[in-house]
Amino acid sequence: MAEDTQYHMDIQGMTCTDCERHVGKALEGIGASAVRANFRRGEAIFWAPPQFSFDRAREAVQAAGYHPRGIRELEATDVKAMGHDEEVDYELVVIGSGSAAFAAAIEARGAGARVAMIERGTLGGTCVNIGCVPSKTLLRASDIHHRAVQNPFRGLATHATPPDLATVVAEKDALVEHLRQKKYADLIPAYDIDLISGEAEFLDPQRIRVGDRIITGGRYIIATGARPRIPTIPGLEQVSYLTSTSALNLTTIPHHLIVVGSGYIALELGQLFRHWGSQVTLIQRSPTLMPAYDEEVRSVVAEMLLDAGIEVIPSARYERVEERGAEKFVHLTLGGSPRVVRGDALLVATGRDPNTEALNLSAAGVAMGTQNEPLFDDQLQTSNPRVYVAGDVTLGPQFVYVAAYEGKVAAQNALELGGRPIPLDLDVVPAVTFTQPALAKVGLTQVEADRLGLSVKTSVLPLEAVPRALANRDTRGVIKLVAEADTGRIRGAQVVAENAGDVIYAATLAVKHGLTVKDLTETMAPYLTMTEGLKLAALTFDKDVNKLSCCAG
After folding, report:
1. Is 290 one of the catalytic residues?
2. Which stretches of 403-534 are assigned E, i.e. beta strand?
């Protein structure tokens, strides 16, 4: 007896879950089974017997009020048979529920795979709960407060009362709850994903345990994220300190915030509390601030911090930390001399550690790195061919958009969608630090290009040459472009400016698609936008832009 076949139908006109049910009923009424309609993807996936009529299927969907656009048989490359003899509970099991996890699950569901998502805590991962959303909300609030206290326009007498942090934090929490529901929780039933609550632990290379349930997955994706790294400093474990998570819930303003670390999280949170009125001291082991940027950019950032009244202590050796009452004391050695930094709040912002400790990855046969991160190849596959990774747990670029991209790639490779492996491509990843002014980069710096042996030319444009900055009465910043010396192809950009995160997207397109300096100079840029600075920086390769009229190129 011939077996049923799985089909995919493109359908237009579905707008909600009720539409999905109507389509399912229509198809089941003519002999289809296991119908999974998805209004967001405009599709229905179903099983049907050999005598199934495509014409009747189209007529049934049309009679239900929708518009079929094509039916095709799902090939083995859409959802592979996984290559195992034993039955599996799910074709794909995703451990974690952040952006990487959801991107993977949605991609797999689009191919018709049965998907389980396992979450041990709060749904949604770092970004929406304790990362991007809450931090950028509070950064915006603190910037508005700071501008009211100190604005650059003569003739404007603005002022601000002390901030009510309890109310600001409550507003932040309400936004987080709203987005968690809308962008995560509501998608679980919409995509028909099985959400399983509990701690996942591998029993062997094929099975995991969640509570009292044992699950066999065809493939697994580890998307468990990362947490703040706590450095080994004598006395730190006995001191009450803040992390990037708990700092966002403070409802009182510290008098003096000491920050251990000086990376992007340290800069953002340091400026956040400085704008609230705290004294802020950043301490770093490295002699160089923001070493991933070129010197011209680093010097602007250093000047920005100095002007803001934020002290940066470089080349520090931590001796010990102690707490006396409400005071914290950080004992340092600087160039052979002792120094003690005293404050009433201590923030640890020294990087991230992967969340792998409970997974028992040794039982799964997954090789681990020196920081307990799963090791993986350029297809995001670990040493266990069933297990893939995605997101912050990889300790790659810690950005939500990278996590989502990796989740999609991991699902495609795990389920062998498309018929050929997709290599991970992180050559063009924009990075933004949301200070004021903001700091952003994409592609190669001059130092990186030199290290690779590339012959490059550079342009450096101070922000006082950008009309938007002059109109804003804030010329703190710089734009630097790195281009190939012979072809003029743009290989990298660095921006310190208000809205640098918006500007860097245009630069990302230029780097990704191989645009040249000439392409930028011959493209019209809207006047009195910060993005115009990219064109002006390109013009700077050959001209003195200070001797051009407005908009002249």
Report:
1. no
2. 431-433, 438-443, 456-462, 478-484, 490-497
548 C-beta neighbours (distance < 10 Å), count: 13
Q: Catalytic residue at 220? A: no
Among this protein's residues, is 19 annotated catalytic? Answer: yes
Examine the residue annotation and report whether 241 is marked as an active-site residue of this protein. no
16 is catalytic: yes
Catalytic residue, candidates 9, 82, 117, 127: 127
Q: pLDDT truncated to tens, each residue of the chain (553 aa)?
A: 467 788 889 898 898 878 888 999 999 999 998 888 877 678 888 889 888 888 999 999 999 999 998 888 876 555 544 333 347 899 999 999 999 999 999 999 998 899 999 999 999 999 999 999 999 999 999 999 999 999 999 999 999 999 999 999 999 999 999 999 999 999 999 999 999 999 999 999 999 999 999 999 999 999 999 999 999 999 999 999 999 999 999 999 999 999 999 999 999 999 999 999 999 999 999 999 999 999 999 999 999 999 999 999 999 999 999 999 999 999 999 999 999 999 999 999 999 999 999 999 999 999 999 999 999 999 999 999 999 999 999 999 999 999 999 999 999 999 998 778 999 999 999 999 999 999 999 999 999 999 999 999 999 999 999 999 999 999 999 999 999 999 999 999 999 999 999 999 999 999 999 999 999 999 999 999 999 999 999 999 988 777 666 665 5
**Catalytic annotation, pick one of 132, 368, 401, 505:** 132
| Catalytic entry in 7, 9, 19, 388 | 19
Q: What domains appear along the chain, each with residue ranges and CATH number?
A: 5-73 (3.30.70.100), 77-229+351-426 (3.50.50.60), 236-349 (3.50.50.60), 431-547 (3.30.390.30)
Is residue 14 flagged as an active site residue? yes
Residue written as tokens 């969907």? Answer: 61
State yes or no: is 304 an active-site residue.
Answer: no
Gap between the Cα atoms of 219 and 208, Å rounded: 11
Q: Based on the residue annotation, tell me whether 388 is a catalytic residue of this protein.
A: no
Integer Cα distance of 354 and 376 in angstroms: 14
What token pair was written down for 324? 């006396």
- Residue 322, classified by CB atoms within 10 Å of its CB into exposed (0-12), middle (13-18) or buried (19+), is middle
